[in-house]
Write a structure and sequence with these properties.
The protein is of the alpha/beta class. It has 13 helices and 17 strands. It is 39% helix and 17% strand. It has a seven-stranded mixed sheet, with helices on both faces. Strands 13-14-17-16 form a four-stranded antiparallel sheet, covered by helices on one side. Bound molecules: 4'-deoxy-4'-aminopyridoxal-5'-phosphate (PMP).
């Protein structure tokens, strides 16, 4: 995998006089030259607005945009391209479901089940919806420092007739937990409960197959999987999309507009009002081709091996608290050093060229559950190396000495 580093021009630089060690991949990944070049090729040759013009460039741009949709369908094994809606990212995908399917189907007294490890973007949209329609929220707990979902109460929770939706993350962005998403979806399906999977941390990091998972909705972001920022995907099962009202109104999503009423196109265009982010969809297409050529299984194995190595080396440091599962974890490791605030760890590491993240990682409720305000987080992708983990340990050891551990 180390040989792939040459595909990422950004990695080859010094930061504050040290070689860059980029360990903030859970926030956003870096982009290979193949994606950067696909974007400039598109802007240099084919750029025009999609679906509207009948000139050659518009035809090419439309073909490229719809080709990207077909590529996404193949990437996540959707049954049809019409199940793929382009969004700005995971957050917009979840808000779309809350504001369309949610507004139409949820009423006072209904329950939305989430888990305690959800990112704010899979909590707040449901809180807004619940406040609007009178639904309630319930949470599947996370077990102590192991950071696994406590499945013992799940059957009881889903048994409640009022539960209409179960939304959960595939991989935790703080704990590195990989959830048994197919099992969770199967349990929900037996009770006719609709499922939404937040795949922000899994898409591009491991194979994501919507038919195998058996979910109704699945959302992810292009920027965390080598694609451009500002483009994401919402998968929705065909049978559900047909009955859902539009998300936003405007150009491109209509069949016919009158002064006082309008009709809509079918999915997915019904959900894509206005000029879509077609250029970045082309970039995402290139990213998916790039990742598929490496192999998603291989990427997952590398994430997992590097994370296991990091976990093992970190656990040997004195005065460290590690979060999340001890094994079977994704490429995310959260930790706290005794007597050193996470922000100080990240600030000093940055001075040594090591990019980490410190904070609540948009997981404030989880932080409260863990009894901390923040953690420091290292997150890996396939271009990270064991040597970079060694450098991280070296820097953390130096930080501990400096802060007198
Ligand atoms: N869910 C999870 C698990 C995430 O890690 C993130 C990004 N940190 C999101 C949702 C939101 O993704 P975006 O900001 O790209 O919409």
């Amino acid at each position: 995998m180390e040989s792939l580093r040459k595909d990422f021009p950004i990695l080859d630089q010094q930061v504050h006089g040290h070689p860059l060690v980029y360990l903030d991949n859970a926030a956003t990944s870096q982009k290979p030259r193949a994606v950067i070049e696909a974007l400039s090729r598109f802007y240099e040759n084919d750029n025009a607005n999609v679906h509207r013009g009948i000139h050659e460039l518009s035809r090419r741009a439309t073909e490229a945009f719809e080709g990207a949709r077909d590529r996404v369908a193949k990437f996540i094994n959707a049954r049809a391209s019409s199940e793929i809606i382009f969004t700005r990212g995971t957050t917009e995908g979840i808000n779309l479901v809350a504001n369309t399917w949610g507004v139409k189907n949820l009423k006072a007294g209904d329950t939305i089940v989430l888990t305690e490890m959800e990112h704010h973007s899979n909590i707040v949209p449901w809180q807004l919806l619940a406040a609007r329609c009178g639904a309630k929220l319930a949470y599947l707990p996370v077990t102590g420092d192991d950071g696994l979902l406590d499945l013992s109460g799940l059957d009881g929770l889903l048994h409640d007739q009022s539960v209409k939706l179960f939304a959960f993350t595939h991989v935790s962005n703080t704990l590195g937990t990989i959830n048994p998403v197919a099992e969770l979806c199967a349990k929900a399906r037996r009770r006719n409960i609709i499922t939404l999977v937040d795949a922000a941390q899994s898409a591009g990091h491991r194979p994501v197959d919507v038919q195998e998972i058996g979910c109704d909705f699945l959302a992810f972001s292009g920027h965390k999987m080598c694609g451009p920022s500002g483009i994401g995907v919402l998968y929705g099962r065909h049978e559900l999309l047909g009955d859902m009202p539009p998300f936003q109104g405007g150009g491109d999503m209509i069949a016919n507009v009158d002064f006082f009423a309008s009709t809509w196109k079918d999915a997915p265009h019904k959900f894509e009002a206005g000029t879509p982010n077609f250029a970045d969809a082309v970039g995402l297409h290139a990213a998916m081709d790039y990742l598929a050529a490496i192999g998603l299984d291989k990427i997952a194995r590398h994430d997992q091996e590097l994370s296991a190595y990091a976990y093992e080396r970190l656990s040997r440091l004195r005065g460290i608290r590690l979060f999340g599962p001890k094994k079977e974890r994704s490429g995310v490791v959260s930790f706290l050093l005794n007597n050193v605030h996470a922000h100080d760890v990240v600030t000093v590491a940055d001075q040594r060229g090591v990019a980490l993240r410190g904070g609540h990682h948009c997981n404030q409720p989880l932080m409260k559950k863990l009894g901390v305000e923040s953690t420091a987080r290292a997150s890996f992708y396939f271009y990270n190396t064991a040597g970079e983990v060694d450098r991280l340990i070296e820097v953390l050891t130096e930080i501990q000495k400096f802060f007198g551990e």
